[in-house]
Structure formats: structure tokens, C-alpha cells
Design a protein that fits this description.
The chain has two domains: 142 residues, Schlafen, AAA domain (Methyltransferase, Cobalt-precorrin-4 Transmethylase, Domain 2, 2-Layer Sandwich), CATH 3.30.950.30; 213 residues, no CATH class. 27% of the residues lie in helices and 28% in strands. The strands form seven sheets. Strands 13, 14, 15, 16, 17, 20, 24 and 25 form an eight-stranded antiparallel beta sheet that branches. A four-stranded mixed beta sheet has the order 3-4-9-8. Strands 7-10-11-12 form a four-stranded antiparallel beta sheet. The protein is elongated, with a radius of gyration of 24 Å. It starts with 10 loop residues before the first strand and ends in a 15-residue tail after the last helix.
Length: 399
């Protein structure tokens, strides 16, 4: 099977699963080998049916330039291009647009150069968050079977719509349950100091085809999470716990935990920055306040946190897409602090009833997305709660 995290390690030949030849490979629900390049309109429409079938399922790979016999890869048929840099983006754009709704999670293309010249093209299709998808030229929905693709019947279409709605609900239910466990002091760090900002990354694969990763693989993959801390110090070495592995930060002067990163067996990641209260001074009435300064977690998440999570999931070979979910836990009436001019700060207060806040899920088509672009709208939700449209933190420079 081609490695699931990303198609770029694929090579022409070798003994491992990243090689196109050199070991027996059979077509299954998540791979389809096709000999020819789809040059014409009809051929691209036919390929779009395969894209829809994969997007309506847990995803898969289309391998172009591979001959198959009896459901197994039988040999490479090199594809040759006058201008690969133009032909490949044109194909992927067409394959995104022919289905309705548009397939947002791919296909992502990887050309594999061949020693004798030419290429094999690997097109990766992720499960679609807007599934089920249909091909607009025949208005049919397609499903993936062990022998290829086939149009869905009415029962399959109903099930696909129900599963699509369930996916978003399951992801948000996971986040809500995780926040509730932290409030009940049942999370990975039961003595976490609040207020806290909690970032979850939930791969779609963890919902659609959950599998438990080996604990040694988890421990090795979690190493990048040590650099993801919202604090000034790195998190500790990965340690085994009930749900996977945990990298945990230092305790504060009250012997409370301040930060941690949890990697679950199914590939979900929970990154938490706690102990966010700092002293502030309201000059208008000469009052000392205990304040949350969002830049304390916003800047590290943009600079280190999301990239560390992406590196961890790449090592574990957990594929995109994924959902990013940001949440906060507070005491009633928490003050939010930010600088409005040199040596002058503002301290708006959250509504007194607000002790928990969550941002809408952010869909990540791949883990190479720009962290600033991904996180900024999620950060804005907290600022909206105090009447400010967008985060005033200079996320580009961290100032």
C-alpha cells in the first residue's frame, strides 16, 4: 500500500510499500491503477468518477501509468509529457471541479520519475468533508468497491449524506468531551492550571477508519511535540499513558501543570497551554488585575505548535485532511489584555457567564497549510467575545 501520510515518498522500485514495483501490489478499495493519461474530455469525466468514489469513501490513490491484470499491478507504462508543469495542474483542477460539490481535499498529485524516462503519476484523493460528491456531467454519485467504482443506489446515497453530517458532529463531540474531561480534572494533566487554550487536531482518518498505532511508533512520532509548547520551555520527553503518549511541561510555583501535548493512539493531538493568567495594571483606576494575554499562546501556536503537530502526524503516517479545533477555559469575568500603544494596554472583560469558548472547526486539506492563515480566524473568536473584530497580535512578527 502506498504510504498514507503523503504521496511524495513514492519511488519507482524497491522492497517497501513506497515503491511502485518490486513487491506484489493488488488494487483494493483505496488504490486504483490506470494505464493511460486522461487526455480527452470523456477520459477526464471517467477519472472524475473515480475521484468522487474515493472522496465519498475514506480516500485513496489513483496511479496513472500502471498496467493492471486481474486486480493487481502488472507493470509500469511510462507517461511522457511535453510540459508536465502545465499538464498536471490542469488535470487536478479539472478533477476538483467536475464533481459537485467541489472536491476540496485533492486530488494532490505526485509525479514519480522513472529511470528509463517518463513518469508515473500518483493522485491522492482525501475523504471529502462535503461528501457525497457526484459527477455533474451524469448527475450520478459513485462509491468505491473492492473491484472498482459503481453508481450508488438510493440507499447508498442516503447513507452517504447521513455519514457526512455525522463526521462533523463526531469531530465536535470529540472536542466537547475533551474539554469536559479537563474541567472535571480527568484530562492527561489532571492538575492543569486554568485559564487554558486548547488546540485539537483531529484527522478525518481517525473518525472514518480509526486504527490504534503501536505505542513505540507513537513515542517516536511525538518527539516534535516537545517544541510545541506555548510556554518558553520545551515540553518533556514523550511518556506512555492510557490513551497514547504525553509530553508535559513544567509545574508553576503552585505545583500546577502549565502545558502538555497528548498524542492519542488514533492520531488525534491535543495541545494545551495553561496557567495563562498574568498581572496587569488598569491605569484608569490604578487597579491591579489578573489578565490573560492571548499573544502568549497565539504567537507560539503560529510559530511552532501547528508545525510540530504536522511533523508528528507525518512521522506517524496519518494522512490529511484533518479538523483543527480551538477552545478556551476561563474563570467567570476573565480580563483579556493587549497593547494599544507603547506602555499602554487595554483590558476588556469577557462576559461574566462565559467560562468556556469554542471556535468553529477549521478544515485542513493538507498539513502544509500556512499556520498564520489557518489559525487567525480561530483566534478571532475569542476577540469577538470582547467586542474586537480581529486579533491585534502581530502574528507575522510575533510582536
Amino acid at each position: 500500500m502506498i504510504p498514507r501520510a503523503r504521496p511524495d515518498p513514492v519511488i519507482e522500485t524497491g522492497p517497501g510499500p513506497a515503491a511502485l514495483t518490486g513487491h506484489p501490489v493488488r488494487e483494493r478499495r483505496m488504490r486504483d491503477d490506470q494505464r493511460d493519461w486522461p487526455a480527452g474530455r470523456d477520459a477526464r469525466t471517467e477519472l472524475a468518477k473515480d475521484v468522487c468514489a474515493f472522496a465519498n469513501a475514506p480516500g485513496g490513490d489513483l496511479v496513472l501509468g500502471m498496467r493492471e491484470e486481474g486486480g493487481a499491478a502488472a507493470g509500469i507504462v511510462p507517461l511522457r509529457f511535453a510540459d508536465l508543469d502545465a499538464d498536471l495542474p490542469a488535470l487536478t483542477s479539472t478533477l476538483r471541479d467536475l464533481p459537485g460539490p467541489r472536491v476540496s481535499g485533492g486530488p494532490h498529485a505526485h509525479p514519480v520519475p522513472l529511470a528509463a524516462g517518463g513518469h508515473v503519476i500518483v493522485l491522492r484523493v482525501a475523504p471529502g468533508p462535503a461528501a457525497p460528491h457526484r459527477v455533474t456531467r451524469d448527475n450520478h454519485f459513485y462509491a468505491r468497491t473492492p473491484v472498482g467504482k459503481e453508481p450508488m443506489d438510493i440507499h447508498g446515497i442516503r447513507h452517504a449524506f447521513a455519514a457526512s453530517a455525522s463526521l462533523a458532529q463526531q469531530v465536535q463531540a470529540f472536542r466537547d468531551d475533551a474539554l469536559a474531561r479537563i474541567v472535571r480534572h480527568e484530562g492527561p494533566a489532571p492538575d492543569l492550571a486554568l485559564p487554558a487554550c486548547i488546540c485539537h487536531v483531529v484527522p478525518v482518518a481517525a473518525v472514518t477508519r480509526p486504527e490504534g498505532h503501536d505505542i513505540d511508533a507513537l513515542r517516536a512520532a511525538a518527539a516534535p511535540l516537545q517544541t510545541a509548547s506555548p510556554g518558553r520551555r520545551a515540553l518533556g520527553q514523550p511518556r506512555i499513558n492510557l490513551h497514547g503518549v504525553l509530553c508535559i511541561g513544567d509545574r508553576n510555583e503552585d505545583e500546577e501543570q502549565t502545558a502538555y501535548a497528548q498524542l492519542d493512539r488514533d492520531g488525534c493531538v491535543e495541545l494545551v497551554g495553561g496557567a495563562l493568567l498574568r498581572r496587569g495594571w488598569a491605569q484608569r483606576n490604578d487597579e491591579e488585575l489578573w489578565v490573560v494575554y492571548p499573544e502568549l499562546y497565539e504567537v507560539p501556536l503560529v510559530r511552532y505548535g501547528l508545525r510540530a503537530i504536522a511533523d508528528t502526524l507525518a512521522v506517524l503516517e496519518v494522512p490529511a485532511p484533518a479538523y483543527l479545533l480551538l477552545g478556551w477555559l476561563f474563570a467567570p469575568g476573565t480580563w483579556i489584555g493587549y497593547e494599544v500603544a507603547q506602555h499602554r494596554a487595554a483590558f476588556p472583560s469577557l462576559p461574566t457567564h462565559l467560562t468556556q469558548l469554542t471556535a468553529p472547526p477549521v478544515y485542513l486539506e493538507d498539513f502544509g497549510a500556512d499556520p498564520l492563515t489557518v489559525l487567525r480566524p480561530a483566534f478571532d473568536v475569542l476577540w469577538n467575545a470582547v467586542g474586537i473584530a480581529h486579533t491585534p497580535t502581530d502574528l507575522a512578527t510575533g510582536a
